[in-house]
Prior knowledge:
This protein has 13 helices and 15 strands.
Amino acid sequence: MNAPIRFASNAALAARRDAATPRGVGVMAPFFAARAENSELWDVEGRRYIDFAGGIAVLNTGHRHPKVMAAVAAQLERFTHTCYQVVPYDSYVELAEKLNALVPGAFPKKSMFVSTGAEAVENAVKIARAATGRTGVIAFSGAFHGRTMMGMALTGKVAPYKMGFGPFPAEIYHAAFPTHGTDPTRALASVAGLFKTDIDPKRVAAIIIEPVQGEGGFHIAPREFVLGLRKLCDEHGILLVADEIQSGFGRTGKWFAFEHFGVAADLVTTAKSLAGGFPLAAVTGRADIMDAAPPGGLGGTYAGSPIGLTAALAVIEVMQEEGLLERSVALGERLMSRLNALRARFPQIAEVRGLGSMVAAEFNRPGTDEPDAAFAKRVQTLALERGLILLTCGTGANVIRFLYPLTIGDTLFAEGLQIFEGAVIDAAKTSGLA
Ligand SMILES: Cc1ncc(COP(=O)(O)O)c(C=O)c1O
């Protein structure tokens, strides 16, 4: 590996950042990236970190996977932009074919591409409205669907995502997402309750759900709940939209988390790990529904960038060649058993949950249901000081989520877990409950 490139000190860059960029773009790490490789990242002062954040679930195939880099380098030699709607290119069609085959559902499908997850969500809502002629959309408490106006409207957490940014698009309703063992029947009743209190089901175009909530705290939707939603949608002619932006592309041990439920959504949004570190997002869905919008109604200047598409085609090959779905299951099992062993020792760990490698530990004040965001933050900070990048999540900011690359080697994975464990032990010491 080459010697680290020295740009400036972290402190000097932070001072320039504070003067030049708005505080609304919150930044977690007190250091600046210089380079990264698979599961490791080096800062501008040459310090090395193990990356269990993956740029928020983007790097299931790791930083700069050689195969992805080679595909992108080859594309850079051909062309970087034509705007697909002006002069099309084959990679758009090829990735659409691949996603249509991979996304759950034994029916004809079509796919379209944009650049970010929020844009994919926006387009899923546009398509659902065009296809049904209805306007209403139901989302869930704790959901996160992005920072655009519709993304914010659908997001089920006010601070910091919605504060001061309204008004939001109309006709958006929220039902309670079942967490912490909530009875799925009660949760379904909360959705059906909206039809009595808020909106006629005949006016609902779509119900959008994260099969495993991401920002909301890695809560896994109970199977009966998803089956019930599918039934409710079918009864009322409502489209079911699966937001697989964080849960997709192998994170849960399957290509898509919905595969765990054995039912298909009508529309599926993907982004993040889809293109291994390059900006790309997609909406895939039933062909007739996807065709509802008129020509010109969908797209964008950079929508379906050839760079992102080429990267995504390489990502799919890497996932297949390297058996990353199996690896996701194996790593997740290893992590879950380590976390459960820690939970037996530390009452601050209230719950450990996971599906494949979409795993999280939730921290509460011992003996209570009160979220302990300070404890989660302390673990995160101690880990970072010791060279491990972790992310928190959860409506109470009291959950640590694990988003390591599925390409991580065993030794580095074990080193990361060791740092995490040490951080929990020391955080417990300072909270006086060790
Ligand atoms: C489930 C989900 N949907 C949508 C988004 C928004 O994606 P983006 O940040 O690429 O706009 C995210 C981002 O975290 C997400 O986790």
